Amino acid sequence: MKFSNLVSAAALAASVEAQRPGFGAPFSFAVPSFAIPTQFASYASAFAGYGAPTGKLGNSAIPVGQTKTASATAYGSVKTVVPTVPTASASSTAAAAPSVIAVSNSTASSAANLTVVSTSQDAKNNPGLPNSALHRGNWASGFDINTDPSTTWPNTGNTVKATLTITNGTCSPQGDSKICFLINGQYPGPKIEANWGDMLEITVVNKLQNNGTSIHWHGFQQKQSNVQDGVGGVTECPLAPGDSKTYRFQATSYGSSWYHSHFSGQYGEGVYGPMVINGPTSANYDTDLGTVMISDYYPLTAFQEEYFASRFGPPSATNYLLNGMNVKVDGSAGQRAKFTFTPGKKHKLRLINTSTDHHFKVQIDGHKMWVVQADFVAIQPYAVSELSINIGQRYDVIVVADQAASNYWFRAMFAGDCSFGANDGSGIANGIISYSNTTSSALPTSKAAAHSDVCVDESLGALVPVAVKAVDSGLFANSVVTTAVGANVLTTNNDTVFQWTIGGISQKIDWSAPTLSSAVNGLSVFDAAKHVVSLPNANAWTYWVLYNAFFVPHPMHLHGHDFSILGSGSGAFNAASDIGKLNFKNPARRDVVTLTARGWTVIAFKTDNPGAWLMHCHIAWHASGGLSLQYLERPADIPSLYSSAVTNSAFSNTCNNWKKYAATMPYKQSDSGLKRREIVGDVEMDVEVLAELPERRRDEASVKAHLNKHVRRHVKSWI
Predict the structure, then answer these.
(1) What are residue 112's DSSP bridge partners?
(2) Do the bridges between strand 431-435 and strand 592-595 make them parallel or antiparallel, or are there none, so unpaired?
(3) pLDDT digits 0-9 by tens, 621-672
(4) Would the pTM of this model clear 0.90, i.e. be above it?
(5) Cα within 13 Å of Cα(193), Cβ side
(6) Highest taxon of the source (predicted)?
(7) Which of 271, 503, 543, 580 could make an SS bond with 261 (beta carbons 3.0 to 4.6 A apart)?
(8) Residue 648, phi then psi, degrees to nearest 5
(9) Closest Cα partner for 638 from 540, 531, 533, 516?
């Protein structure tokens, strides 16, 4: 397939190297402007004016202690059943606990104290006091801010139930209509909220016309519940259209996160929503203002953008969204996300980067943000004016309303060295913080703080976990494994396609044969393309040097664990000179880390959670391009733990339904690597597409005609 404006990756790399020797630059400096290929252009134009949006914006809360039921006809149903004051039983390692302390927003005695300090010592000194504005480090007897959730958690006996129904539709995140997928009739999906130690029982109903789906519960460690992780081809078969599945797992950690589709790049279409697990906090606050999901926005569908990204490099976002909304860059349409501060009070915000491709820097003009949690790990508070947050990462922050009564911009600014788009956060298309006592309704005139375009995480030295956990350093030198991240470029005449690799392999999973199911059946040797890395030893520390040979950073996410980040640096890791830079005493812990451009990051985790766990780049185009692997942790323990789960009728029915659908589905799997490719004349295409043609009709003209038909069919399926 010839596109006259394609640029080869080699030329691209040379171009950026010439501009920034020794470092490189994002694709934005080298990718030429291009017209949509004719196969897509007609359908893209047809999308314009598709009709009034059918989905509502924002996410409706599912509050703890209440029941919410939406119209089953219009929006499906969402229900939460949680007693107001749940009770707790013994945790996995602790003695029986009394009642979990209900979260209180009482502010009676806190207004005069605007300092932000760690609650760690207060929780030790006052273990019997309730969780309140003055004692946010407390939770329940035996469980507080100093507890390590990776080993100890309450069993409340409560179950939070919800139903998520996924449908085709349209939405208007910035005021104009576009194709999207809806959850319970809204974009993005509804918030799911529970308490630390609750069980979650969430039924996912797939009512999409031409898409399978699966839902991953991001950051949840799924202790002995690997089958609930929601990754098609790894822990389950995807849900076919018309099918449903009930996921059941425990909230063993607390903090802020999100759920999202793990089916191709589907979450970029709107299949995601926020999750809040209430628990202790490492600094006191008065009011919890809830989640702030930050995402990039594109006018085309995620599947179209993915197609272009594999050939042209990443597309430029036309806007960013806060909780699924923003005005257009010129302010001509749409609506802003708005938050209200009460003067003299401390406010908790839960920041979540739900983007497909963008690293953001968050600012609230005129205010410091005290960072108290990184992903699902409580940390000692520290203050910033600008917070760096990559895809999949979460930060809980405390903001003191100590400025003059007015309106202030809430900005999400692109990290310009790796992200780019039409809205850089410097204009009027931002969120607004309004003081409750302001009389002004005018747009803010506040000024941004100093901004950095560098694509790096918050300093590892600042991310100090409250619950201290050391990493065994004794076996590091003899056990550490280096895994390189890179890219291949396949060029056929004028068609250039990027293929991402880790450890030299571009992963391709088989949706119909989940790794977990194969492991239960005793399979120990897997197809190389599935990229299964076996970790046979129990409760052993494993050490991994992630080395990025490319000039693009990668937000690397591990399922099933919070890993310890021992250190990072530029260039290749040198054991002799770099081991002294590593922190084994109480290193930062989280589940997403930015692997910087042409640099290394050393992570470690303990094999205490048997299962099949994916590790992947959370840039949607990169994961779809194969930048992922799966750890098969303690395979000998998997059959006894999961045999009943993968041999029961529910699991089998899901796979049987998927296989039946896959045999006739309108388009085949096209992500997680290039798959095998065939060349006919100057046309390159997936083998599955070519196989649809009989041998006698595989001349170049027939293949081109068939490919155009196949592309049209793809575009129809995206509607």
Answers:
(1) none
(2) unpaired
(3) 999 999 999 999 999 999 999 999 999 999 999 999 999 999 998 766 544 4
(4) no
(5) 21
(6) Eukaryota
(7) 271
(8) -75, 170
(9) 516
